[in-house]
Design brief:
- With about 200 residues, this protein is an all-alpha fold.
- About 70% of the residues lie in helices and about 0% in strands.
- The chain is globular, with a radius of gyration of 18 Å.
């Protein structure tokens, strides 16, 4: 099967798995996609398991303005061919926080340069980059990844500066990253607790 045929097969599976109630619920809750089949994550994982990870397929899926295609792209993208500049392009094209969360979980946290990129992203102005950065740091902290003193200070400084004016999903992501860091580093507990009161 070539890439076009694989995309056709995936779209056919998505139509068969369509959930109009879930799709309507997402729309009502502000998750606006050009096309949303409302397919649940376990079903998407099952569809992804039918295909080999493939860079060209993942890139083609990402370009589709369809919720499920973007989620599948993160599941099917091989880590070794996903260069930092591609990660930046993907974040620029992220339509919702849901896609950010799932892409971080399925792909970004596995990248060899994940920590380096997370720090670059939390320092950027654009909210989607910040969101991906804090989501990624939380995932790395959950894996027990430590920070050296310089990185720790940078993380806490950025989080402290951003949390004061952050709202919604970004604020939740910062709070979550701080809580996950607190679990692996008890020495800064008081400082982190003070930030969480902002």
């Amino acid at each position: 099967m070539n890439i076009a045929e694989e995309i056709r097969k995936i779209k056919q599976e998505l139509r068969l798995s369509m959930n109009g109630v879930a799709s309507a619920f997402m729309r009502e809750n502000g998750l606006n996609y050009k096309l949303n089949f409302g397919v649940e994550i376990p079903r998407l994982q099952s569809i992804a398991s039918e295909f080999q990870p493939n860079h060209e397929l993942a890139q083609a899926l990402w370009k589709e303005n369809i919720r499920e295609c973007k989620i599948l792209a993160g599941m099917l993208q091989p880590v070794d061919s996903f260069y930092p500049e591609i990660a930046e392009i993907w974040i620029e094209g992220m339509p919702t926080a849901e896609i950010a969360q799932l892409t971080v979980m399925n792909l970004f946290q596995k990248l060899p340069y994940a920590s380096e990129k997370a720090f670059q992203w939390i320092a950027r102005e654009e909210e989607m980059f910040q969101l991906c950065g804090y989501l990624l740091l939380a995932r790395l902290f959950m894996k027990g990844e430590p920070l050296n003193e310089r990185a720790e200070n940078e993380f806490l400084d950025q989080a402290g500066a951003t949390i004061a004016h952050a709202e919604g999903t970004l604020k939740k992501a910062i709070v979550n990253a701080l809580l996950k860091y607190e679990e692996i580093n008890k020495q800064r507990t008081q400082e982190i607790e003070n930030m969480l009161l902002q």
